[in-house]
C-alpha cells in the first residue's frame, strides 16, 4: 500500500493538493469570497456536465443555462412549496433535469451540429419566459425567495474550532457545493475511463467505426445529454440555494455562453479542465470590467462599449484567442508545456511522431 | 455452409450506380478476395454488408438472417467485424483503448456501473483489458499498446484496426485493403498474419485488395467487380486468365 502511494504519478499528488486547498480555502478568506468561490464550484459542476456532452460525446449545446434553470426551480419549488429539506432537493433536481435532458437528446439525434446549436440556443432563449407562465408554482416574474440556510451545529463548531469565528451561511454552502463538486468530478472521471464513457469518446472520434464496433450511437448520444443535464441541474439547484433566490432573469442566455466559454477555455475532454474553465468564466468578466476603464490606451468608446456589454465582449475575445492559440484549452497548454519540459530535461527527442493518415472515415 | 449470402445487390447514389445486381456467397472457413479497378464498388459493398448504407435493391444474409433489418451496431453481434480502407481509429485513444472498444459487445457495464464502478465492473474491465492485450500481442503490437494511436505510422494503425476487429471474435472478418499503403515487409507480415487468423482463429475472411501477389497468395476464391457489376468469379488462377478481367484492368489502366 505504502509502496503504491509512493509510486503514484505526480498528478495524483496534484489532485490531493487541490482538494486540500479547496477544503482549507474558507478558513483563510472572508465569507463573501467564500460565496464567490462557491459560485466558481457551481460553474465547475455545470461546465463538467457540458464537457461530458461537448468534449467527450462530441455534441454541442448553447443552452445549458436552461438546464441549470430547471434544476434551480425544481429545488426552489420543493423547498418553498413542499417544505422539503434543501439537501434532499439537490439530487432530486439533478435527476429530474437529467431526465428532461435525456428526452431533449432524443430529437437532438436527428439534428446536425449546426441545427443542434440552434435548437439548444432556442432552449436557452425560451426557458426563462416559459418559467414565468405557471406563476403560482414558479412565482412568475418575481421568482422565489428561499429561506436562509443555517450551517448545522456540527460543521459550525468544527469551523469555529479551526478559525475562531462563527460559520456563516455562505461558508456552509461553499462546503456543500464542494462536496457535490468532488463527487461529481469523481463520477465523471470514472465515466470517461470505463465502458460507457469510452463508447461516447468512440462516437466523437468516428461514428461509423463506433457503430461497427457495436456501439449504439443513438443510445449513448442521448445518454450523454441526460448525464450532462443532470450535472447542470445539480449546479442550478446549488446556485439557487446559494443565492437564496431564483427568478427567470437569473438564467439569461449569457449564462449558457459563459458555460460554453468555460468548457473551451479549460479544455475539452479534460477532467481538471472544467475547474480551470470555471475560475476563468467567473473571474474574467469581473476582473476585466475593473481593468478596462483604468487603461488609458484603450479608446474610450471601446472601453464604454465593453462596460455596457459586460461579460459578452470579454468572453468573445477570450474564446477567439483560445481557439487560435490553445485549441486544447488551458489544460492542453499545461500538459503540452510539461511534456516539452520533460523532453528538454531528458535532452532527447525520444517521442516519435509518425505521419497522420488522411480522412479517418469509411474511405 | 454459407456464411454470407449477397443476393442481387443494387446500390445507387443519385445517378451513380455503385452496385448493379451483385450476387455471391462466402462459405464458412473460406478466404475470399474481392478485387476490381478503382471505383468498382468494393468499399460500397462492404458498407452495405455492415449496414453503413442501405441497399437500393437486393439483400445481404448472414447465416440466413437479413442484415438490412438490423441496426448498424447489431451487425457485429451477428459475427461481422471490419476494417476501413483509410483507417478509422478513435484518434484520441491509445492502442489498448481502441481495441477495448472493439470488445464493446462482449461487455455489459452500463452508465451507472461506469460512473460508480462496483467489483463486477472492475473485473469485467480487467478481463476486457486482458482480451485486448492478447489481440494486440497477436498482431505484434505489444510494445506500443499504451501509445496514442494518432502518432503511430499508417501500417501500425492498420494492425490496430485489425486487432480491434479481431477482439470481437467475428466469424466473418471484412478487410478493406489490408495491404494498401504499407511497405513491402509489412505486406508480407500482413499476409502471414492473415494466414494465422484463418488457421489459428478459424475465421472466415472477405478482403478487398489491389495488391495482386497478396491476393493470389492468400485467397481460396476471387470475386471481380467492375463498374458495380460482378464480371468474374473463381480460383485465383482462373480469374487471372479470364479475358474480361484482363480487359477491365487494362481498360482501367
Ligand atoms: N457515399 C457516396 N456518395 C456518392 N457516391 C459514392 C459514395 N460512396 C461511393 N460512391 C461512388 O460509388 C462508386 C464506387 O465507390 P467505392 O468506394 O465502392 O469503390 P472501390 O471499389 O472501393 O474503389 P477503390 O479501389 O478506389 O477503393 C464510385 O463511383 C464512388 O464515387
Ligand atoms: Mg475502396
Q: How would the blueprint of this fold be written?
A:
The complex is a heterodimer of chains A (363) and B (253).
Chain A: H1 2-7, H2 10-28, H3 31-56, H4 64-80, H5 86-108, H6 113-132, H7 135-138, E1 144-145, H8 153-163, H9 169-193, H10 195-205, H11 207-212, H12 217-243, E2 245-246, H13 253-266, H14 273-291, H15 300-309, H16 311-325, H17 329-346
Antiparallel strand pairs in A: 1-2
Chain B: E1 2-13, E2 16-27, E3 31-35, H1 42-49, E4 57-62, E5 65-66, E6 80-82, H2 95-102, H3 111-115, H4 119-138, H5 154-166, E7 172-176, H6 184-199, E8 204-208, H7 212-218, E9 221-226, E10 229-234, H8 236-241, H9 243-252
Question: Which descriptors apply to this entry?
Answer:
heterodimer; A: 363 residues; mainly alpha; ABC transporter involved in vitamin B12 uptake, BtuC; 2 domains; 17 helices; 2 strands; B: alpha/beta; Rossmann fold; six-stranded mixed beta sheet; four-stranded antiparallel beta sheet; binds adenosine-5'-triphosphate; binds magnesium ion
Structural class of chain A: mainly alpha
Distance between the termini of chain A: 49 Å
**Which class best fits the helix and strand makeup of chain B?**
alpha/beta
- The name of the CATH topology of the largest domain in chain B is Rossmann fold
Say which molecules are bound, naming each kind only once: adenosine-5'-triphosphate, magnesium ion
Number of strands of chain A: 2
Text of the CATH class of the largest domain in chain A: Mainly Alpha
What is the helix content of chain A?
over 70%
| CATH architecture title of the largest domain in chain B | 3-Layer(aba) Sandwich
Low-confidence stretches of chain A: 348-363
Strand content of chain A: under 5%
The span between the termini of chain B is: 37 Å
Mean pLDDT of chain A: 88
Mean pLDDT of chain B: 94
What does this protein structure show overall?
The complex is a heterodimer of chains A (363) and B (253). Chain A contains 17 helices and 2 strands. Chain A has 363 residues and is an all-alpha fold. Chain A has 2 domains: 27-283, ABC transporter involved in vitamin B12 uptake, BtuC (Orthogonal Bundle); 295-355, no CATH class. Chain A has a two-stranded antiparallel sheet with strand order 1-2. The longest helix of chain A is centred in the middle third of the chain and has 27 residues, at 217-243. Mean pLDDT of chain A is 88; it is low at 348-363. By secondary structure, chain B is α/β, with parallel strands linked by helices. Chain B folds into 2 domains: 1-79 and 172-253, 3-Layer(aba) Sandwich (Rossmann fold), CATH 3.40.50; 90-169, no CATH class. Chain B contains 9 helices and 10 strands. In chain B, α2 packs parallel to α5 and α4 packs across α5 (154-166). The radius of gyration of chain B is 19 Å and the shape is globular. The mean pLDDT of chain B is 94. Chains A and B meet through α9, α10, α11 and α12 of A and α2, α3, α4 and α5 of B. Adenosine-5'-triphosphate binds at residues 13, 16, 18, 36, 38-44, 85 of chain B.
Amino acid at each position: 500500500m505504502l509502496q503504491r502511494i509512493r509510486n503514484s504519478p505526480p498528478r495524483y499528488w496534484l489532485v490531493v493538493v487541490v482538494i486540500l486547498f479547496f477544503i482549507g480555502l474558507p478558513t483563510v478568506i472572508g465569507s463573501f469570497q467564500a460565496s464567490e468561490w462557491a459560485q466558481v464550484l457551481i460553474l465547475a459542476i455545470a461546465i463538467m456536465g457540458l464537457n461530458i456532452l461537448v468534449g467527450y460525446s462530441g455534441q454541442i449545446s448553447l443552452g445549458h443555462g436552461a438546464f441549470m434553470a430547471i434544476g434551480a426551480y425544481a429545488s426552489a419549488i420543493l423547498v418553498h412549496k413542499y417544505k422539503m429539506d434543501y439537501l434532499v432537493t439537490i439530487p432530486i433536481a439533478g435527476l429530474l433535469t437529467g431526465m428532461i435532458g435525456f428526452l431533449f437528446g432524443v430529437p437532438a439525434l436527428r439534428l446536425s451540429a449546426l441545427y443542434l446549436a440552434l435548437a439548444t440556443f432556442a432552449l436557452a432563449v425560451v426557458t426563462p419566459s416559459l418559467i414565468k407562465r405557471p406563476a403560482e408554482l414558479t412565482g412568475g416574474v418575481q421568482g422565489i425567495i428561499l429561506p436562509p440556510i443555517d450551517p448545522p451545529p456540527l460543521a459550525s463548531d468544527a469551523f469555529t474550532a479551526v478559525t475562531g469565528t462563527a460559520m456563516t451561511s455562505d461558508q456552509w454552502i461553499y462546503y456543500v457545493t464542494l462536496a457535490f463538486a468532488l463527487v461529481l468530478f469523481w463520477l465523471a472521471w470514472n465515466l470517461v475511463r470505463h465502458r460507457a464513457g469510452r463508447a461516447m469518446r468512440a462516437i466523437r472520434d468516428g461514428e461509423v467505426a463506433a457503430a461497427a464496433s457495436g456501439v449504439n450511437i443513438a443510445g449513448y448520444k442521448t445518454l450523454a445529454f441526460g448525464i450532462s443535464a443532470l450535472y447542470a441541474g445539480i449546479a442550478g439547484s446549488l446556485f439557487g440555494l446559494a443565492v437564496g433566490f431564483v427568478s427567470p432573469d437569473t438564467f439569461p442566455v449569457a449564462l449558457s455562453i459563459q458555460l460554453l466559454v468555460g468548457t473551451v477555455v479549460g479544455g475539452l475532454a479534460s477532467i481538471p479542465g472544467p475547474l480551470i474553465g470555471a475560475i476563468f468564466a467567473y473571474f474574467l468578466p469581473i476582473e476585466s470590467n475593473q481593468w478596462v476603464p483604468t487603461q488609458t490606451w484603450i479608446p474610450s468608446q471601446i472601453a464604454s462599449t465593453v462596460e455596457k456589454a459586460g461579460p459578452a465582449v470579454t468572453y468573445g475575445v477570450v474564446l477567439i484567442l483560445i481557439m487560435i492559440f490553445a485549441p486544447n484549452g488551458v489544460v492542453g497548454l499545461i500538459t503540452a508545456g510539461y511534456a516539452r519540459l520533460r523532453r528538454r530535461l531528458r535532452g532527447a527527442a525520444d517521442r516519435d511522431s509518425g505521419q497522420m493518415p488522411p480522412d479517418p472515415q469509411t474511405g | 455452409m454459407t456464411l454470407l449470402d449477397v443476393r442481387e445487390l443494387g446500390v445507387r447514389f443519385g445517378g451513380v450506380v455503385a452496385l448493379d445486381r451483385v450476387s455471391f456467397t462466402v462459405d464458412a472457413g473460406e478466404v475470399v478476395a474481392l478485387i476490381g479497378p478503382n471505383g468498382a464498388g468494393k468499399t460500397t459493398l462492404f458498407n452495405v454488408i455492415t449496414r453503413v448504407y442501405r441497399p437500393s435493391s437486393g439483400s445481404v444474409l448472414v447465416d440466413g438472417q437479413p442484415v438490412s433489418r438490423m441496426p448498424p451496431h447489431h451487425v457485429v453481434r451477428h459475427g461481422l467485424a471490419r476494417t476501413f480502407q483509410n483507417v478509422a481509429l478513435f484518434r484520441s485513444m491509445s492502442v489498448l483503448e481502441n481495441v477495448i472498444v472493439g470488445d464493446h459487445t462482449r461487455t455489459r457495464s452500463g452508465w451507472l456501473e461506469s460512473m460508480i464502478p462496483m467489483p463486477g465492473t472492475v473485473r469485467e474491465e480487467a478481463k476486457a483489458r486482458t482480451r485486448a492485450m492478447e489481440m494486440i500481442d497477436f498482431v505484434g503490437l505489444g510494445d506500443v499498446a499504451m501509445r496514442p494511436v494518432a502518432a503511430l505510422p499508417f501500417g501500425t494503425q492498420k494492425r490496430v484496426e485489425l486487432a480491434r476487429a479481431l477482439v470481437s471474435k467475428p466469424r466473418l472478418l471484412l478487410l478493406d485493403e489490408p495491404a494498401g499503403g504499407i511497405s513491402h515487409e509489412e505486406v508480407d507480415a500482413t499476409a502471414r498474419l492473415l494466414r494465422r487468423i484463418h488457421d489459428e482463429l478459424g475465421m472466415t475472411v472477405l478482403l478487398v485488395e489491389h495488391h495482386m501477389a497478396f491476393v493470389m497468395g492468400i485467397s481460396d476464391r476471387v470475386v471481380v467487380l467492375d463498374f458495380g457489376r460482378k464480371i468474374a468469379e473463381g480460383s485465383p488462377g482462373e480469374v487471372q486468365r479470364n479475358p474480361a478481367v484482363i480487359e477491365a484492368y487494362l481498360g482501367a489502366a
